[in-house]
Amino acid sequence: MDKKELQRRIFELEKEIARLPGGSIARKRINGHDYYYHRVSINGKRKETYINIERLAGLRAEIEQRKRLQKELRGLVDAFEPAKKKAIKEQLSYKTIVRTGELLRAQIEAVRGYKKRECIKELRDYIFGDTSDKVFILYGLRRTGKTTMIRQILDELSDEEFERAAFIQVTSKDTLADIDSDLNLLEIAGYTYVFIDEVTLMEDFVEGAAVFSDIYASSGMKIVLSGTDSLGFAFSKGEQLFDRCIMLHTTFISYREFEEVLGITGIDEYIRYGGTMSLGGVNYNEDATFSNVKNAHEYVDSAIAGNIQHSLSLYQYGGHFRGLLDLHERGELTNVINRVVENINHRFTKSVVEQLGMMKVLDILNIEEQSVKVEEAHMVQIKEYLTLLDLVMDIDIAYLPETGAKGSVTAVIQPGLRYAQAAAIVENILKDAGFSELSIKERKRILDRLLSEISGRLMEEIVLIETKIANPDKEVFKLQFAVGEFDMVVFDPEKLSCKIYEIKYSKEQVKDQYRHLLDPEKCRLTEHRYGDITGRYVIYRGEKAAIDEIQYLNVEEYLKGLNCS
Length: 565
What we know:
This protein is of the alpha/beta class. The chain has helices at 3-19, 53-78, 82-90, 101-108, 120-128, 146-156, 159-162, 176-188, 205-208, 210-216, 230-238, 255-262, 267-273, 293-315, 325-329, 333-356, 359-371, 376-388, 415-429, 440-470, 520-530, 555-560; strands at 24-30, 33-42, 45-51, 97-100, 135-139, 165-169, 193-197, 222-227, 245-249, 392-399, 406-412, 475-480, 485-492, 497-503, 532-540, 545-547, 550-554. The chain is 48% helix and 19% strand. The strands form three sheets. Strands 11-10-12-13-14-15-17-16 form an eight-stranded mixed beta sheet. A six-stranded mixed beta sheet has the order 4-6-7-8-5-9, with helices on both faces. It has a three-stranded antiparallel beta sheet with strand order 1-2-3, covered by helices on one side. The model is unreliable at 279-286 (pLDDT under 50).
C-alpha cells in the first residue's frame, strides 16, 4: 500500500469507526430473566442503556466490527514514518479527531479527479463570501456526496487559507463540551475554516447547537456542519439554530447531475440506479447502491430507518415523534418504517398492474397488501419524516370538469430505490404457484412487460418531480379527465397560460401518443381553467422532432435542460 492509499484508508476507517457504537454489552439477571444493556463511558462516567432483544445481535456485531476496524487503524498508523507518527500524536491534544495541515491535505487527494455537484456553489458562496454570523449545514442521506463536497471545497482554498482550515470527525462518544474545547483551541491558534462531520452523532447536539453560531461563527469562523441525521438538523434549525444557519440538502440528485457528475448516460440507467453518488461510472465512487433489492433494503435500513431511529433515540423528549415513541420502545420502529416504504412502492406497482389489466397478478398483490398493514397514524407520521428526508414528494392530480376534486400520488425521489423494490415485488409474484404452469418463456414475457411498464411510470415520475423542482413559481401536476389524461401540465399563474405534455416510454413517434393533446374538448376545458395553451409536447426516448402542432422532446435532453439546483 503506497503513502496516498495508506492515508486514504486511515480516513475511511476513522469515518466508519465514528458511525459504529463503542462500549460493551452487559448482561444482568433479574428475577430469573436476562436483561441486556449497552455500557459506554462518557467523560469518565459510565452510562448504561437498555437493549431490546431484537436489537441485541445487531448491536453486538457493530461493536465487534468497530473493534476490528480500530485494530486495523492502529496497524496503519504504526506503518507511517516517525515524522508522520509524531504529527498524528500531536492531534492527541484535542479531545476529538481533528485534522489540520498535511494530515488534512492527505484526505482530499482521492477526490481531485471527481467532478463537482452543482449545489457546491452554495457552500462555495458561504466559504468565500462575507457571511459571518451563521453556520452552514450540509446534510442528506448517506452516499449523496456530503463528505466529498467538503473535501472538494477544501481543495479550492489557497495555501494560506488551507493553513487555517481544520476538519473534525465526530464520534458517538464525543460531547458538545469536547467540540467546544477543540473549537476554542482552534480559534486561539488562528483557524478560520472548520468543517465538523457527523456532528449529529453527539447526544447533546440539538440542545446546544447555538454554540456554533453564537460564539464561533459570530466571531468570524466559517463553521460547516455535516451529517446524515437530516431530522436532527431540521429540529436544530427550528430551535437552537433558528435564523442562524444556511441549510443545503444533498439527497436529491437530478438526472443532469447523474450524467454530468457520475459520467453515466441514459434514462434507463437513472431509473435503475439513480438516487446516490455511488454507482461507479467513470467519474465517481464504486458500488451500485440499488443494484439489487438486498442492497436497496440495506439502504432503507441504514440510511432511512436508521436516520429516524437515531433522531428518536436522541430527541425523543422533544415531542417530535408523538405516536412513534411506543414503536421505538418496543423495538418495532425500523420494521414499520421499512413497511411504510415498501407499502408506498407496493401501491405504485399495483397501479402499474391495474393499468395493464393483469388480473391474476393483481389478485396476488391484493393479498400481499392485506398482509402488510400499518396503522394509519404511524403511516402519516412516518411519511412526514420521509418528506423531511427528501425521500418522497407528492405529485398533485387535478380533475376536469370537476374543478373541486383534487388528489395526489407519492413519488420516491430516489428512482433506483423504487425500481429495485418494485422489480423484486414483480419477480416474487411470478414465483407464485399460480404461475407455475406457465412456460419459462411466458413468465419472461410477463416479467419484461411489467418491468417495461414500471420503467415507463418511473420515467413519468422523474419528469414530473424535476419539472416541479425546476419551476417553483409554476404549478406542475397531472390532469385527469372523465376519459383520458394529460401526463403533465405546467401552469403559469402569472401569465395565465399553460403547457401540456404526454410522457411516453418509447423511442417511436406514433399519432396515438398525442391524441389527448389535440382533443378539442379536453383543450377547451384546460384553457378555460388554466389559460392559453402555449405548447403541446411529447417527452419520449427518441430524437427531437415536430409533427403537426406537437413537439417531440428527447427525455434526456429535456431533463438536462432543467435547472434543479
